[in-house]
Design brief:
single chain, mainly beta, four-stranded antiparallel β-sheet, 16 strands, globular
Length: 174
């Protein structure tokens, strides 16, 4: 669980006991994402107040210690997702920017501009990244390039989910 107070805690499901807090350069968190193997956790967010910033922290789950810090160029980070092989981390920002990172080091890999904030990101099993945006479109990204934008939603698109078999995509918003 993360909070605007800068806390990030892990809980044991079923018993609902707090295992331990995460440590590092904590701040206001918007979203969290686990790596596919469960060994890493990325927490992203930032501040809309001055000075405005966007940041992500990558933690080792077993110890709760911060491994890396990733930063935007001033826009709050709104979403995060790990690729299926865990070798890439994608983050969406409130400034229409999608960034790709090397998760263990926080090294920036590439950036692409997308129309609208991407609140949710999800990878398909083959490594295609899908994210809805405030423009109402759902963007399809493969190999760090925009390959298609799905339209047909009126208003902002906030969420996207793939069915367990990966064959059906649902997105919605307001």
């Amino acid at each position: 669980s993360g909070s605007e107070a800068g806390e990030l805690k892990m809980w044991t499901v079923g018993q609902w006991d707090q295992e331990r807090p995460f440590t590092g350069e904590l701040f206001r968190f918007q979203k969290v994402a686990f790596s596919p193997d469960g060994k890493l956790l990325c927490a992203v967010g930032g501040s809309f107040d001055q000075p405005r910033f966007g940041r992500g922290l990558i933690f080792e789950v077993e110890t709760g210690k911060q491994l890396a810090k990733i930063e935007s160029t001033g826009a709050v980070m709104a979403s995060a997702a790990f690729s299926p092989d865990g070798q890439e981390l994608a983050t969406g920002e409130y400034a229409s920017t999608l960034r790709f990172w090397e998760p263990k080091t926080g090294k920036a890999l590439s950036t692409i501009e997308i129309g609208g904030t991407m609140d949710t990101l999800e990878y398909t099993k083959d490594g295609t990244l899908i994210g809805p945006s405030y423009s109402g479109d759902v963007h399809v990204i493969k190999n760090r390039e925009l390959v298609r934008s799905l339209s047909g939603h009126v208003g902002r698109s906030y969420t996207v989910r793939l069915s367990p078999d990966g064959k059906t995509l649902v997105f919605g918003g307001i």
